[in-house]
């Protein structure tokens, strides 16, 4: 469902994206081409800052926002999801936040007040709050990274995880095409 926010801003969604009918896209949201937004995802840009301003939530091309993901922002801060990035089932991305290109965020992970640089793999049940990740870092399952976390404890992304991330993007790109075709047949 696409809907306006209380400020009167409506989502801008590429005709080449697929939004599942159960998803809610609200307000100042920009979704580029070949993006897949899965069932029950919520992408909501509706809060304003103290001056009444709001930055957009941007989902860049070829990315996928999977089932039950929530993307929101505190006080109108910007949220950007880069190109070819996967946000897996039931994760929460809360602004202010930037997730770079070719990133994989695993199931049930939470990212808040952070910049996740290109090529990172964040496994399931992780929390990243208040600390930026350099490019191509591999965060093992169930790690909590906060402002005092020593990043030397985590390693670079192994090649097999990079190829896994690429396969998830490819699978979801195929889903965009398939679901768009099905919706055209039903209309």
Automatic annotation (TrEMBL):
Gene3D superfamilies: Hexapeptide repeat proteins. InterPro entries: Gamma-CA (IPR052265), Hexapep (IPR001451), Trimer_LpxA-like_sf (IPR011004). Pfam families: Hexapep. Signal peptide: none annotated. SUPFAM superfamilies: Trimeric LpxA-like enzymes. Coiled coil: none annotated. This is Carbonate dehydratase. It comes from Motiliproteus coralliicola.
């Amino acid at each position: 469902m696409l809907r306006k926010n209380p400020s009167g801003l409506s989502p801008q969604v590429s005709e080449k994206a697929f939004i599942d009918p159960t998803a809610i896209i609200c307000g100042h949201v920009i979704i580029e081409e070949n993006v897949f937004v899965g069932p029950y995802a919520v992408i909501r840009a509706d809060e304003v800052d103290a001056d009444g301003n709001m930055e957009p939530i941007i989902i860049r091309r070829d990315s996928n926002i999977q089932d039950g993901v929530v993307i929101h922002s505190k006080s109108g801060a910007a949220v950007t999801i880069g190109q070819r990035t996967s946000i897996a089932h039931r994760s929460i991305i809360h602004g202010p936040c930037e997730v770079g290109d070719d990133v994989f965020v695993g199931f049930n992970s939470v990212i808040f007040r952070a910049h996740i640089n290109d090529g990172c793999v964040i496994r399931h049940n992780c929390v990243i709050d208040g600390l930026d990740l350099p490019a191509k870092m591999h965060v093992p399952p169930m790690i909590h990274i906060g402002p005092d976390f020593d990043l030397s404890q985590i390693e670079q992304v192994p090649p097999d995880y990079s190829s896994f991330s690429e396969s998830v993007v490819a699978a979801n790109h195929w889903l965009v095409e398939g679901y768009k075709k099905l919706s055209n047949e039903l209309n």
